[in-house]
Amino acid sequence: MKPISTRRWPLAFVPLVLLLAGPRPAASEGDTGPAYTPARECATCHQTIHTYWSESAHARAATRPSFLDALGAAAGSGADAAAVRRGCVWCHAPTALVTGDWDLARPLTREGVTCDFCHTVADVDLARADHPFDLKPGKVKRGPLEYADSSFHETAYSVLHKASPLLCASCHEHRNALGAPVLSTFSEWSAGPYPARGQTCQECHMPLVPGDSVREGSTARRINLHRAAGGDSASQLQRGLELRIASLDLSGDTAAVQVVVTNSGVGHSAPGGLATTSLVVAVGVETPSGLRNRREVVYRREMRDAGGRPLVTVPDLFLKAASVGEDSRLRQKEARTERFTVPLPGDWRAVVARLEYRDASDPKGGPRTILVAEERRERGR
Fold first, then answer.
1. Same domain (yes/no): 92, 127
2. CATH number assigned to the domain comprising residue 255
3. If both were cysteines, with which of 138, 217, 223, 306 could 322 make a disulfide (CB 3.0 to 4.6 Å apart)?
4. In this structure, is residue 25 part of a structural domain?
């Protein structure tokens, strides 16, 4: 690891606006030990990165209504409420590991997976029972640049941030108290072809894009995309999944359709994440009145409780899951052929195949569906 940089520029080289408004140590708010810096202060210099982060699921991790509803339901489930809350919050608002703000009372905690938390993690040990992080909050900020300098904090090059999946695995790999793999994204990636190729989580979810690492005086012209898009992003899904109609045979008033679906670029099973997500392969017939005679196949992982019953809510997955049921998801580089027989109305215009991503994690809002891909075969062509 590169030694920590302690370089400081003369004041003449520091823009006055940064001296007046640049990052400062955050108020301790009653905490003991080093405080975390709020994201708005990081934005003073790292404006572009902050803008991308503010659009991410990480920035909403502690305030998303579906998370707060699940947190309340889990805490009221009859289990140890304090332990349940801690187990949820340390991933969604990990600064609480230092501040102790398990009730999400402070603005800093409600920033979710915030800048200063990630960039002060020194190491990760997935075997650690309570949490996997080696936390070093303070003046030293760790990142993927080997020769970074700052006038406001010390810097350290970090392999963990540059090219290791462990920082992501900290929260995206989880076994509950019953030993069930509620989240298995990291282990799925580990079992696939990408580790041998040197392709990590960051390469897909935080790719390099044009941009300055700081507002002024930057020597870097490419930055990691801190939007960290996942299954909630149509463009991310479209980069990793493919759909095509392999054959269409018309016979009288029916169509025999073969559709090939491929996990061409997702680094883990698709869909990833919780068992509330699924991929839907659907074929229907377009008519003047809309899509009719829809047939579908669903790819998902099922989690079951100790009695073998399927679980459908987020709190139940974390608290009650005891085993994995059927897992029909697409593995890395897997191509699968599905066959459909669809009745053809007299006024049909086209046979339509669709690949959809469905997320049912929010019981109040209902399932959210994203169209990943669509292919059509027009009548008479």
1. yes
2. 2.60.40
3. 306
4. yes
Structural domain count of the chain: 2
- Please report the pLDDT score of residue 51 as a whole number: 95
Which residues in the chain come in under a pLDDT of 70? 1-34, 77-79, 215-220
The residue out of 224, 255, 278 marking a domain boundary is 224
Whether 194 and 322 share a structural domain: no
Residue 4 lies in a domain: no
> What region does 194 belong to: left with phi over 0, alpha with psi -120 to 50, or beta?
alpha
Could you tell me the residue range of the domain that residue 155 belongs to?
A: 11-224
Tell me the HSE value of 35 on the side-chain side, using a 13 A CA sphere: 15
Same domain, 171 and 90: yes
- How high is the pLDDT of residue 171? 95
Give which of 101, 111, 161, 163 is closest to 136, Cα–Cα: 161
- Please tell me the distance from the alpha carbon of residue 153 to that of residue 24, in angstroms, as a whole number: 9
Of 257, 262, 221, 258, nearest to 372 by C-alpha is: 262
User: Are residue 208 and residue 100 in the same domain, yes or no?
Assistant: yes
For 2-18, the pLDDT digits (tens) are: 444 433 333 333 333 33
273: left (phi over 0), alpha (psi -120 to 50) or beta: left
Do residue 93 and residue 189 come from a single domain? yes
Helices (H), the chain: 16-21, 39-42, 47-54, 65-75, 81-92, 96-99, 115-118, 159-163, 166-172, 185-191, 194-197, 201-205, 234-240, 314-320
Average pLDDT, the chain: 89
Inside any domain, residue 1: no
What per-residue confidence (pLDDT) applies to 60? 97
41, 143: one domain: yes
Q: How far apart are the first and last CA of the chain?
A: 61
In a domain, 2, yes or no: no
- For residue 324, the Cα-to-chain-centroid distance in whole angstroms is 21
Of the CA atoms within 13 Å of residue 212, those in its CB half-sphere come to 10
> Other C-beta atoms within 10 Å of 346: how many?
6
Res 363: pLDDT = 80
Phi-psi region of 102 (alpha: psi -120 to 50; beta: other; left: phi over 0): alpha
